[in-house]
Amino acid sequence: MTDDALMQDCKTTPYWWEDVPRPVLPGAPLPASVDVAVVGAGYTGLHAALQTARGGRSTLVFDAEDAGWGCSSRNGGQVSTSIKPSYEQLARRHGPQRAFDILKEGQNSLAWITQFVREEGIECNFAQVGRFHAAHNAAQYQALEARVGSQPAGLEVDAFMVPRERQREELGTDLYWGGAVYTQHCAVHPARYHQGLLERVMAAGAQVQARCPVLQISGSPGQFVLRSPQGEVRARDVVIATNGYTGNLTPWLRRRVIPIGSYMIATEPLPTELMDRLFPSNRIVSDTRKVVYYYRCSPDRRRVLFGGRVSHQETDPRISGPKLHADMVRLFPELRETRISHSWCGFVAYTFDELMHIGKHDGMHYAMGYCGAGVGTSSYFGMRMGQQVLGLAQGRTALDGLAFQTRPLYTGNPWFLAPSVAYYRWRDRRPV
Ligand SMILES: Cc1cc2nc3c(=O)[nH]c(=O)nc-3n(C[C@H](O)[C@H](O)[C@H](O)COP(=O)(O)OP(=O)(O)OC[C@H]3O[C@@H](n4cnc5c(N)ncnc54)[C@H](O)[C@@H]3O)c2cc1C
User: How far is CA 363 from the centre of its chain?
Assistant: First the structure.
């Protein structure tokens, strides 16, 4: 099929927006002053706002676009423990106790979001389906087996290995070398989750101002002034929750996060028998490639939602769509003639130490840098940041006070990504 035929009638907005269009919010005038001003209405900003609003602080959330327009309504809806470095790597850098505590926070985030969705009664197809993490070569299978077999004491998670000969019990492809199943990982409808959260934030009394970018922040704690096209607002506390969309508003943060495009496609609806063959266990899936693929069924099990990193600069979903389709067909040749119904992308934020960061700079709170896997962690650290604004002891996290590194000459334009991605792609293809 030609690229044009593949993309015929393809929408360039997220599949999730079919169910949950971007919310139309009441365009109330901006207040002259608030206790807390939050920049960014994704999971991070809204969870911080939920804490401060429920804690009795007048709270105003700005978003430059519609609420949830960023990653929080574009992601794959895979929820995991989300700390990228291993225990050994973290222990070398920060010592064994800090390493343990950081990894524990990742586990806390998964447990916490599961409980949050249940207690708040948010209908968002949240389910503990488990993850099949596939090995893309034999060495990676052995490495996974070693990792599952010798987990650090106190950090054990429920997981088991699936050898290559039994792989089709998990996934309808022979391309991988087996993999590991992490039973506690979850799937969610990301836009329904965002919508449920947004409704609770507004019910708690916070004002959410969409299509209102913050252009400048001046002043200091207790007397910040935020300038926007709709006017100025004074705020006692400011929360920055802009993750992969962090821009010139906060140059210090911009120098510390690396925006990377992440891309997804949705297929047209497929026959039940085919979906049952491709996803017999209904798990979310990722693989051990450095330039990772992540995919799953849609909540109604009618479509494949396939994601990956196509190119750091590509922003046209009409170009990224056919590339992702070709990658998907390498795994599932049966999908060669399947059309794409939706193709979209968004910007995640990496950091130089592959950890998320939460803290304060120039008196402003921030949490960001989830390195591509932030559904659980952005919710959790957003919540903790809200508690920190309230001055609550339970707001403390194991990541507090970690140095947020940058690199000389880096100002927010990741010129080094193209050669790095090319190198990793080459490495991923090597038959080890
Ligand atoms: C295609 C894709 C797939 C993904 N898949 C997964 C997955 O399966 N699992 C997982 O865990 N994570 C995944 N992620 C990552 C995850 O979605 C993010 O880590 C998480 O949503 C980050 O939330 P956030 O609130 O910090 O940022 P965002 O949701 O990106 O929100 C930031 C907001 O800040 C606003 N903003 C920026 N500047 C300003 C300003 N000056 N004034 C006002 N507003 C401003 C933006 O408009 C934006 O809405 C994926 C991301 C993408 C793009």
Answer: 26
What number of other Cβ atoms are within 10 A of residue 254's Cβ? Answer: 20
Asked whether 377 and 79 are in contact (CB, 8 A), the reply is no
Contacts of 316 (CB under 8 A, 6+ apart): none
DSSP H helices, 279-431, are 317-331, 375-389, 417-429
**Global pTM value:** 0.96
What type of residue is 150? S
Q: 20 in ligand 1 pocket by Cβ < 6 Å? A: no
Beta carbon of 214 within 6 Å of any ligand 1 atom: yes
What are the tens digits of pLDDT across the range 370-387?
999 999 999 999 999 999
Structural contact between residues 345 and 264, judged by C-beta atoms closer than 8 angstroms: yes
- Alpha helix positions (H), 127-213: 138-149, 190-203
Q: pLDDT tens, 29-79?
A: 999 999 999 999 999 999 999 999 999 999 999 999 999 999 999 999 999
For the Cβ of 69 lying below 6 angstroms from any atom of ligand 1, the answer is yes
CA of 100 relative to ligand 1 center, distance in Å: 27
